[in-house]
Amino acid sequence: MLQHKHILLGVSGGIAAFKAAALASKLTQAGASVKVIMTEHAKQFVTPLTFQALTRERVYDDTFAEKDPEKVAHIDIADWADLFIIAPATANVIGKAAHGIADDMLLTTFLAATCPVYFAPAMNVNMYQHPAVVENMNTLKERNYTFIEPGDGYLACGWVGKGRLAEPDEIVAFLEAEEKAHTPLAGKKLLVTAGPTYEYVDPVRVFTNPSTGKMGFAVAAEAAAMGADVTLIAGPVHLNALPGVKRINVTTAEEMYNEVTKIYSSMDIVVKSAAVADYKPKTILAQKAKKQNGDMDIPMERTKDILAELGKKKTHQLLIGFAAESNNIVEYAKDKLERKNLDMVIANNITSEDAGFRSETNRVIIVQREQNPEDMPLMTKTETAKEILARIENMLIKDA
Ligand code: CTP
């Protein structure tokens, strides 16, 4: 959730400033770009070089050290930030923030920031419980700033009680959960279908295709990580359950149709990545067919086109289909978009060796209404899933 996020870390002057170094490191490892602002008092405990080395960014500690004449640093980094975490937040910084005092780089940036700001307090238990500090924290909470509660335990001053800075891992988990709760996909009901279907000829023989389900599973996993409420309807695949994803296993196209239609009306988004059989044997033999001399004909009939049915019944849902094509890819994808009443088609060229069935990677063309087709580079299926979900998020933002 924190990957590619721009995070400002404000470090104020308490002994817990040493833990802020671990926090800067963990945020950087989580894939975020981290810029650190230190107060003069913080520099009594940890040096700017520590944070510079951990984040590979210059550390901001002086409002008047305007190194770039083109920019006003505290405004520039406030605008740059997606989120701002002040850890440790001392009683002094909390008090000044509550009263709009802006006498250093951290506080001027705080006043200029429009992104979510989080305070992780750390101080002596008696200071933490002092009515002035409590009132200042309440003022900030009323203004929609969020506090990450300190822990209980042995404090550096020798007292035991509440006031220990939350552990860096807890702070990272807290920020990730906050980000997840605020994505456009948060709480959206998303249905993914994945894998092949089996159409039985007799008890031991099936018509199927080489789909592994990996693309659909990647979409389900990423969507769940982005806060969506994900249901995965999977054909016969050899893939493990995904944490936080409801999974319904099916075998045939008909079973998939039944399970999808049961829940369709309650869904917000449907991603139909399953490679559903278009035909099934007209009759399923009750006993195993014995081989005969000569050829064998198996009469086949059409299965229901699940996606086309969903397109007909569509009310509020976003409907995303896949198109496995070997020629005229964009033309066929556009045709599918119209014919099946879809919002997006992910087309892949099944003749390309590094894309499609069985491959770990995918090379897709994303076709949306009123937009030029996007020819994506070769990516892993997880990266492809992220690109698809980013476009779904854009659609949700536009519709909001
Ligand atoms: N699909 C479906 N039900 C079917 C067949 C396909 O829901 N019985 C869905 C797939 O999940 C996929 C999309 O339709 O999202 C495209 O499937 P594909 O087989 O590539 O194309 P078709 O629409 O069946 O058209 P054609 O066979 O002409 O390529």
From TrEMBL:
Molecular function (Gene Ontology), one example: phosphopantothenoylcysteine decarboxylase activity
One GO CC annotation: phosphopantothenoylcysteine decarboxylase complex
Residues covered by region (Phosphopantothenate--cysteine ligase): 190-400
EC number per UniProt: 4.1.1.36, 6.3.2.5
Residues the record marks as active site: 157 (proton donor)
Sequence ranges assigned to domain Flavoprotein in this UniProt record: 5-174
Keywords of this entry: Decarboxylase, Flavoprotein, FMN, Ligase, Lyase, Magnesium, Metal-binding, Multifunctional enzyme
Database matches in Gene3D superfamilies: CoaB-like, Flavin prenyltransferase-like
InterPro entries: CoaB-like_sf, CoaBC, DNA/pantothenate-metab_flavo_C, Flavin_trans-like, Flavoprotein
Catalytic activity: (R)-4'-phosphopantothenate + L-cysteine + CTP = N-[(R)-4-phosphopantothenoyl]-L-cysteine + CMP + diphosphate + H(+); N-[(R)-4-phosphopantothenoyl]-L-cysteine + H(+) = (R)-4'-phosphopantetheine + CO2
Residues reported to bind CTP: 278, 288, 322, 336, 340
Start and end residues of each DNA/pantothenate metabolism flavoprotein C-terminal domain: 185-394
Pathway(s) of this molecule: Cofactor biosynthesis; coenzyme A biosynthesis; CoA from (R)-pantothenate: step 2/5; Cofactor biosynthesis; coenzyme A biosynthesis; CoA from (R)-pantothenate: step 3/5
Stretches the record annotates as Phosphopantothenoylcysteine decarboxylase: 1-189
Cofactor-binding details, from the entry: Binds 1 FMN per subunit.
Annotated GO biological process: coenzyme A biosynthetic process; pantothenate catabolic process
Function in brief: Catalyzes two steps in the biosynthesis of coenzyme A. In the first step cysteine is conjugated to 4'-phosphopantothenate to form 4-phosphopantothenoylcysteine, in the latter compound is decarboxylated to form 4'-phosphopantotheine. Catalyzes two sequential steps in the biosynthesis of coenzyme A. In the first step cysteine is conjugated to 4'-phosphopantothenate to form 4-phosphopantothenoylcysteine. In the second step the latter compound is decarboxylated to form 4'-phosphopantotheine.
Family: In the N-terminal section; belongs to the HFCD (homo-oligomeric flavin containing Cys decarboxylase) superfamily.
Name of the protein in question: Coenzyme A biosynthesis bifunctional protein CoaBC
Species the sequence originates in: Alteribacillus bidgolensis
Taxonomic lineage of the native organism: Bacteria, Bacillati, Bacillota, Bacilli, Bacillales
